[in-house]
Amino acid sequence: MPEYSITLSPEVPPGMAEEFAKRVYYAASEIHGFTLVHGRGGEVREIEISTAGEVDPSEIGRKLNLVVRRDVLPQGAVEDSPAVWQSMAMPRASRIGFADLEDNGLVTRMGDGAYAATGVLARLLYQLDHRVRTMAVEGFGAVDNCYPALIPTSVLHRAGYFDSFPQFLMTAGRFRSDADVYQGFATEFEAAEDRTAFLDGRTEHIGYCLSPTVCYHSYHQLAGRQVPDAGAVLTATGKIFRFESRYHRTLERLWDFTMREIVFFGSRKAVTDLRQNVVTAVCALVDDLRLAGHVEVANDPFFTNGADAKRAMVQRALRMKYELQMPVVDGRTISVGSFNLHGTKFGEAFDITTPGGAPAYSGCVGIGLERIAYAFLCRHGIDPSDWPEI
Fold this sequence. Notes:
By secondary structure, the chain is an alpha+beta fold. It folds into three domains: 3-75, Alpha-Beta Plaits, CATH 3.30.70; 83-165 and 212-386, BirA Bifunctional Protein, domain 2; 171-208, no CATH class. Helix content is 36%, strand content 28%. The chain has helices spanning 17-21, 24-27, 57-72, 98-103, 119-140, 153-159, 161-164, 179-182, 185-191, 195-200, 215-222, 268-288, 306-317, 345-349, 369-380; strands at residues 3-12, 31-38, 44-51, 83-86, 107-111, 114-117, 143-145, 150-152, 171-175, 203-210, 232-241, 256-266, 294-297, 321-327, 333-343, 361-368. It has an eight-stranded mixed β-sheet with strand order 4-13-14-15-16-12-11-7. Strand 5 and strand 6 form a beta hairpin. Helix 5 (119-140) packs across helix 12 and helix 5 (119-140) packs across helix 15 (369-380). The longest helix has 22 residues, at 119-140. The radius of gyration is 22 Å and the shape is globular. The relative contact order is 0.15.
């Protein structure tokens, strides 16, 4: 693979290297690997990249420096996140590695960022989801829902998803209704030198995307409706699709994964209280399962402009987003859940109101089932006889 050294101007401060690293692959699809080159003070002065073929390094450099100026630097230095909660169990060395799951037939790679779960892992995913669903329904009166994998593109636009996370979006298309398109398709596809280009020339967007999160279905479902000041709570499990580029890794980061969400609407106080009460309930569940973890202040990975970088700063300052972090292998931690307050953003966008006619406040809690299951197996191993009661 060709390799290039790109000078960054301006440099990336030491405390922001990770924020930059999260965005490198999204800057240009030609980048297949990268290494950050640090100066003596820890600042990132250069980035060494590898590509699949010859590229114009000045154009790749332009895109990387655009990301630095637009998405990274406006956030300011990211300070260590203050801990909101710490589990009773302390981190320890993982009992397994991901290869153990593959060797025991518990996971099968189905493609980039996609795995099938089998046996005790499949059962564990079901059991964990059942525990969180029971907590939502019995503890908070949540109404259970079952949502489709597809979501109208217009709903994501209305929710502001295009303005915040275009890097994750995966759209749905179909072959154009045309006899010539269908005629001899199989043989033409087989003979095509570039099959991606062949498909692109014969498909069209159908007005739907693969759902990037569960809660947007809830906003769509309640659009134009009134909710009580005291709070309305919904819950659902759904398949979630986010393009993670080359960042996909084991069960830690997938393009296709499963999430249980609890979504709540109402007055500001009701939503704030519900978020805190769900945090408390989830943390109690973590302790009950004898898992290590902590909850910290976080922000979403906005990726469009400097204004969104400032939104990330506001998120952290107002503690609108918490994340539940759990240890896995090699000393790493992963986010297995998030606890979010939205203000009236979605109430206004979807005309969801309280009895007084004001836009409803909203919040949501999402638990990534593959991630929490992986953290569970790293902690307790793959033999169910060693597991706590689930």
